Amino acid sequence: MARAPNYGQERKERDRQKAAKKAEKLAAKVAAKERDKPEDDTNAEVETETAE
């Protein structure tokens, strides 16, 4: 006999997988942005703190 479908559980699982994939893409995007950031930004930040 086939098992009875549990549509709610299946939908929750799909939504969880979709959210995990979305979070992974966002994390990769943030990492790429940090990697592409020029090194001069750190020096400029120190200079503005000393000017205050």
Percent of residues in β-strands:
under 5%
The separation of the N and C termini measures 76 Å
- Supply the helix-strand structural class: mainly alpha
Note the run of SSEs as H and E.
HH
Helix content: over 70%
Q: Which residues form runs of ≥5 with pLDDT under 50?
A: none
Describe the model.
This protein is an all-alpha fold. Helices cover 81% and strands 0% of the residues. It has helices at residues 7-36, 40-51. It is rod-shaped.
Secondary structure elements and pairings:
Layout: H1 7-36, H2 40-51
Describe the structure concisely.
This protein is an all-alpha fold. The protein is 81% helix and 0% strand.
List its traits.
52 residues, 81% helix, mainly alpha, 0% strand, single chain
